[in-house]
Amino acid sequence: MTDSVPTVAWSDFARRRHAPGGRHTWFDGSEQDLLDLVGEHWAERSPGAGRQDLDQVVVVPVPPRGFHGTTVHATDETPLHAFLDRRQEGEEPFIRITAEGEPAPPRWAGVVLYSAETLEENDGVRSSDADWEVVCLLAGDGPDEPMDPVTMARNYLEKPGGTFAPYSAREFAEAIWHWSRRAPRHHLEDSP
Q1: How far apart (Å, rounded) are the C-alpha atoms in residues 164 and 81?
Q2: How far apart are CA 8 and CA 170, in angstroms?
Q3: Residues 6+ apart with CB under 8 A from 31
Q4: Do the beta carbons of residue 99 and residue 185 sit within 8 Å?
Q5: Per-residue pLDDT reduced to its tens digit, 87-105
Q6: What's the first-to-final CA gap in the chain, in angstroms?
Q7: Within 10 A of 31 (CB to CB), how many other CB atoms are there?
Q8: Cβ–Cβ under 8 Å, residues 60 and 54
């Protein structure tokens, strides 16, 4: 990375959540490969969902090669499953819906990073001494894909694990509408 790029590290949360073959988007390369991609594309970053500037949460677009998305586009024939889940210990549970089927290969990928200060909000923790930490990997149809509405609500309401962002009613509505026809791929460990 060059001097103009701040220090960047993986958060423990992202490391656990984005493991190869898991329930969430993952990357085939090494952790360092991903950090190198972030450094190469740092100048192309944009504010994260619900943000207006580049101070707290950013999305760095990276080439989708090596990324594996998990979103299934549901049809009338798609079997769906629902179960009570939580992202990590200490967070409130929510109903997760998953879909059987194969996700389409991603046409776009991005890396969501939180600043050190933002990570400490709402009793949050940092996993490193870096200026920014990787919190989430995105892979889908494009950069305009909205965030999951449950995640948005966790952030907006500053629930445990959430970081406040001032989403608009339109952003919530677009997220609900978008995700009303999509769901993460179902895994056997999701079954009760």
Answers
A1: 30
A2: 32
A3: 10, 15
A4: yes
A5: 888 899 999 999 999 998 9
A6: 45
A7: 14
A8: no
pTM of the model: 0.84
Element (H, E) at 46: strand 46-47
Q: Which residues contact 17 (CB under 8 A, 6 or more apart)?
A: 24, 87, 136
Band of pLDDT at residue 156, cut at 50, 70 and 90: very high
Element (H, E) at 138: strand 132-140
pLDDT digits (tens, 9 = 90+) for 3-33: 478 999 999 999 999 999 888 999 999 999 9
CATH architecture of 8-186: 2-Layer Sandwich (3.30)
Beta-bridged to residue 94, according to DSSP, are: 85
Long-range contacts of 13-20, Cβ-Cβ distance < 8 Å, separation of 24 or more:
13/88, 13/127, 13/135, 14/133, 14/134, 14/135, 14/136, 14/137, 15/127, 16/88, 17/87, 17/136, 18/136, 18/137, 20/68
Q: From 88, 68, 82, select the one nearest 21 (Cα to Cα).
A: 68
Query: Which residue type, as a one-letter code, is found at position 80?
Result: L
Count CB atoms within 10 A of the CB of residue 114.
Answer: 24
